[in-house]
Please model this.
Amino acid sequence: MKNPQRSPTNPGSLRSRFTHVFLQSLLRIRKHNPTSSSSSPHREFLKRCSQVKVAAYVSMARAVGTRRAWSRATIWRARNGERRRNLLCRRCSKSNSRERSLGKKKKKKKKKKKRDNEEHGFAHEKKLQKLVPGGEAMDFCCLLDETAHYIKCLITQVKVMRSIADFYSL
Amino acid sequence: MSSRRSRSRQSSSSGISDDQIIDLVSKLQQLLPEIRNRRSDKVSAAKVLQETCNYIRSLHQEVDDLSERLSELLANSDSAQADVIRNLLMQ
Model:
């Protein structure tokens, strides 16, 4: 029997670890993006927004460490995502947008058929796989386990971000 | 422990027992705010998965909104010293 008292996410230390790492990331973002006059302040704002968002997810993954598949996937994506983006971004964006618009139309038809056929609880498995980092490589059992842990960590992340935002806005 | 191991060996060849899935689905159910408030045991696995997807999406949306708010606050805050002090306080 699994020990029910075993809690890999000890909420006290996870929360403080995440807060520490995330605050350091925020300071770094602030240093590297000085709010001096620029030609496009809106672009600067969007860039900073996405940096903060990525920092939040990566900070939580780092606080969790490598013992969870979703945190490993997040850290891996962060390390390799920038390289991929720099290489492929401009060239593929146009072609990808065309492929996605075609793919979306095809996917809608497939979804309707799937709903008719699969009336078990596993019909939403693929949706869930896309939402949880690294989910596409997991079997159903692991996916459920990782999802439960991921949700707990997301809740902590949101609480800490909200308290930081409230603290800064005082 | 041994009884569960023997059960899993006897059940499907895929290696995942129904009991495990039921346990995991009920564990997820406890985390979802809507289903937890209803306090009904008669929630199908499909419903739990659907609510899980919706809940994760709403959490992602909250993270997006909070990131916007934080990046605005970062832009507006003047002193870097205040950041350092706050950082120390948070520790």
